[in-house]
Amino acid sequence: MIILAFAGSTVQAQNKPTLSAGQAIVEAIRIKPPLAFCGEPVPLSDPEIRERLERELLVSLDDSDSVILWLKRSNRYFPHIEKVLREESMPDDLKYITIAESSLRPLAFSNKGAAGYWQFIESTGTKYGLEVSNDIDERRNFYRATQAAVGYLKELYALFGSWTLAAAAYNMGEDGLKSEMLVQQENNYYRLYLNQETQRYVFRILAAKIIISNPARFGYALAPDDLYSARRFEIVEIKAVQPVPLHILAQAANTTFKTIKDLNPQIKYYHLPSGACRLAVPPGSSAGFAWRYEKLFAEWLKTRNDFVYTVKRGDTLTGIAARFNVPYRALLIWNRLSRGSKIFPGDKLYIFSNDFKTGNLSSPAANPAPPEPAAPEFDPADSGP
C-alpha cells in the first residue's frame, strides 16, 4: 500500500487543505517534461510513454520498504559508481541501473542465473573479466562488478549509439535487441515492441532516478544519520597453497567470520581457495596480518592432523556425525562435501569435535589430509528487499 505524507512539501500549497492520500499520489507521479535518461529525452508528450512511466512509479512507491532501502544504500554505493563513470566519461544516470537490477543487494540472484549488484549472467561476467568458479563469484564483488558493468555498457553504447538502447540491451542481450530492431525496422526504444521485462526496464530505471533524485516529493525525508555509509576496509594479498578456512583469516585480521564474509561477498563458502587472492579486511588490521596469518595457518595445519578419521565399511556421513556428536552440516563444511556426497572405506574426513576418540585414528602418517571435494552450496541468494 502506498502511504505518502506531504505536510510542508512542495506538492501541497501553503493555503490549501491537506491532500488526501489518493490525491497526494496523483500529484506526486505527475511528472512534467523535460525528462531525460543519460541526456537522451524521454518523450513524455506521448500519453503511452507517460502511462508506462507512471506505472513504474506506482509499482515502486507501493513498496515503500524497498524505496527506503534504495535511499539508504545509494549513499553507500553511488559515490563509487559516480567516480568510475566520471573517469570513463559516461553518463551519471547509468548508476540507477543497479536499482532496477538488484536494489543494491550483493547476493541478489535471479531465476535466470544472474547475480550480484549488476546482475551479470555467468558468461557475460567472465567475458568482462569476472571470476565465476566453484569458490569465487566476483559478480558479488561491488568494485569488480562495477568495473565490468561500465566496460559492458560502454561497448553496448558503441554498438547502438544510444544509452537508452544500451540499457535495453543490458537487460535483454545485444543479439536479442538487434534482432528486434531489424525485424521491426525501428531504432527508437520507446517505439519498439519488446518482451515485457525490457519494455518496462528503462521506465523502472527512470522511476528510481526520479524518486532518489527528489525523495521529498514522495514523502521521504531521511536525515544524514539514516543513510548507510560506505564500508571501510584495507586490502591484503594472500598466496595460499591450499584452501584456507575463513575463520583462520578472520583471526589473522582480528575480526569475525561474518566481517570477512561481508567485506568479501565474492567468497561463496567457508574457505578461501588456493592461489593468489586480494582480501578485504577491517581498517587497521592489515598491519601484521601476514605474520598472524602464517602463524595461525601453520598451527591449524599441524592441529588438524589430530582430527582425521578414516572411513570404515558401513559408515555413513549421518552416522559419523551422530557418533562424534557433531552436526551433519558441520561435517560437510569441514570436508567441503555437498549433501548426498558418497563416502567409501579408506576415505579421510576431518572431524573437529571434542568427542572425537583418538582410538578411532591410525597414526598421522597413515591419515594424510583428505582430498578437496566439491564445495557445498550453503550460501543462499539474497531474496529480501
In a nutshell, what does this entry contain?
This protein is mainly α. 42% of the residues lie in helices and 7% in strands.
Describe this structure in words.
- This protein has 385 residues and is mostly helical.
- Among the domains are: 31-226, Lysozyme; 234-287, Membrane-bound Lytic Murein Transglycosylase D, Chain A.
- The protein has helices spanning 21-28, 47-61, 64-87, 97-102, 122-127, 142-160, 163-172, 174-184, 196-213, 246-252, 257-263, 289-304, 317-323, 328-334; strands at 36-37, 40-41, 234-240, 244-245, 271-272, 275-281, 308-310, 348-350.
- The protein has a two-stranded antiparallel sheet. Strands 3-6 form a two-stranded antiparallel ribbon. It has a two-stranded antiparallel ribbon with strand order 4-5.
- α3 crosses α6 (142-160).
- The longest helix has 24 residues, at 64-87.
- The protein is elongated, with a radius of gyration of 26 Å.
Describe the SSE topology.
Elements: H1 21-28, E1 36-37, E2 40-41, H2 47-61, H3 64-87, H4 97-102, H5 122-127, H6 142-160, H7 163-172, H8 174-184, H9 196-213, E3 234-240, E4 244-245, H10 246-252, H11 257-263, E5 271-272, E6 275-281, H12 289-304, E7 308-310, H13 317-323, H14 328-334, E8 348-350
Antiparallel strand pairs: 1-2, 3-6, 4-5, 7-8
